[in-house]
Amino acid sequence: MKKIALASLLLQSALAFAQPAPKPYGVTPSAAQLNWHKLEMYCIIHYGVDTYTDKEWGFGDEDPKLIDPAKFDAVQIVQAAKDGGFKGIVMVAKHHDGLCLWPTKTTDHNISKAKWKNGKGDMVKEYQLACEKLGMQLGLYCSPWDRNNAFYGKPEYLKIYQQQLRELYSNYGKLFISWHDGANGGDGYYGGANETRKIDRTTYYDWANTWAITRKMQPGATIFGDVGPDVRWVGNEEGHAGETSWATYTPKASQSGKQPANGEVLYELGIEGTRNGKYWMPAECDVPFRPGWFYHASQDGMAKSPYTLLDLYYKSVGRGAALDLGLSPNRDGVIDADDVAKLKAFGELLKQTFTTNLAKDAEITASNVRGKNSKLYGTKFLTDTDPFSYWATDDKINTPTLTLSFKKPVSFNVIQLRENIKLGQRIEEVAVDAYQNGKWKQVATATSIGSKRLIRLPQNITASKVRLRIVKSPVSIALSDFGLYKEPVHVTAPAISKSRSGEVTISTDAPVSNIYYTLDGSTPSKVSTPYSKPFVLTDGGIVKAIAVDGDVTSEAANVKFGLNKENWELLNTANNGAAQAIDENYRSVWITLQKDTSAAFKPTELAVDMAGEQTISTFTYLPRQDKKTEGIVDRYTFYVSDNGTDWKEAAKGEFSNIKANPVEQEIKLNAPIKARYFKFRADHVISGNGVAIAEIGVRSK
């Protein structure tokens, strides 16, 4: 018997030796990148002086004493992320305003000057301990741009910045990511200089040597940035990668002759990556949970719904990227209760959808198994929990098929595929068929697979057999997962719109039993006002609505409207097409860009007669929504007048981060003012020689 067993082992070894594992294709991930891929989702936490000044980017002159949260609780914040299914957090240790949330030795502008804990606190340490307690991984972001530091833009600052990184890498445990962005240089406080400082973003930070600090002190951490080098920015702050999304990437500079760098790259290339790119550099899809990255009381109740988050999950994680959701603790230092509830509901939705893999009940057959060795490369590995065990084909078999056969028909609406990315990203195109009514019917196609591909079907599919066809691959297959899942039944939240006359319409994509709405800011229910026809909202306000179909209730839609514009008139009728800026239609845009690209930008004004005195608490500006940046205003001045001739400045500032996050901008006044006329002046634009304005408006409440 011993001889027989020995012979059997020798035979298995011979078979394995005769058919070695597939050779890796292209570049492959590092150990740190493999850990990053396993996380799939994490949250980036923005809290600081901007939480109290109602800004997105601080100017650098803010008093650290603003930081005095009455209930700061890192455990509550990290727990909220964990309840949402997120596996880690990135703590913003320093934002562009320069205030360090740890007691650094590099600058006095740090947490030790805050009122919080009488200057003895360390927020970074609190997040570290919270992550360790809850089993979450920690990442840190220390902004390279520092609008407070007097040395920014000079050689001395680089030493300060690098020392800040060394402090963070030394004192706060193991990190999974060191996060960087492309915000570089511009106007700031700079120790009282109050000036604009420009840098060469391709050379100033000496990234090669700066990243070397990370490699030495935190070898297990990935480095994120516009150009990686480990994880790339996807190129938008909308939370999604391209339908085709390659984990490999070759970044290119936006200017000819320049080397690509953070802030100097063709961002749009990051959406899809590069097939057969030079580096393994998968995408991170960052998106704020609320409209802005920092907390603003005006955005309470406006966090993304659980199903909106689920949609982003499919479009990020489900395309081989990672979802990085921005959380913003409030002025008390905790996550708002409504945000917590939505995160938890999202986490439950993920569990409901992906706990049961229907494919585990199927008999799986393959048209080819590598070396006919099912023990090493068989289909049994397609439904286990190991992302690196895999079904493989012989070297010349690039377009095989897999068939799942069930004892009785199953219903599903989500398909999951994964490759063993230790062997590279190999598959370029697949198709899925369902066996229905005695014949095969194609129900889905997809391109790139990589670490994970989720195909969300538009309707439920019921079938007794399901077939996967590899349509295109340059090399043999190394597929680690084939899953079928069932997303719960749900009703889509209704759409809410308002005409120029103030008429509000609430509608759904498909018929439902009822729609209910509220106007007082409360969450609607089945006892709220039923919607039957459009109604007029004279003074603007918040409209919330739900759709109900039988026993199923949708999430609440939430829209904030300004004053009616029905009787508004422009003072300068020479502004051709300017009426599009006050027509309540975000798709129409007033554009003054000139064909002569050499022409310089000149400040542009738009004055409005509101046909009567109004109380103004907030000005609004909506940039163009067509994903173009030319003409988007990033510096502004608002004026008011009683007669349309004599103007008084009411608000002046910048629209921070509007290039990456072009949502409606709110300029809330310190105190309401009364006026009949207002004027918007575009003082500067991101690019171009004119403006592109979708809407401007005012709110009274």
UniProtKB/TrEMBL annotation:
InterPro entries: FA58C, Fn3_assoc_repeat, Galactose-bd-like_sf, GH, Glyco_hydro_29, Glyco_hydro_29_N
Keywords linked to the UniProt accession: Glycosidase, Hydrolase, Signal
Domain F5/8 type C positions: 543-701
Name of one Pfam family that matches: F5_F8_type_C
Domain of life: Bacteria
E.C. designation(s): 3.2.1.51
Residues of the signal peptide: 1-18
Transmembrane segment boundaries: none
Gene3D superfamilies reported in the protein's UniProt record: Galactose-binding domain-like, Glycosidases
Family that this chain belongs to: Belongs to the glycosyl hydrolase 29 family.
Protein name from the UniProt record: alpha-L-fucosidase
Lineage: Bacteria, Pseudomonadati, Bacteroidota, Sphingobacteriia, Sphingobacteriales
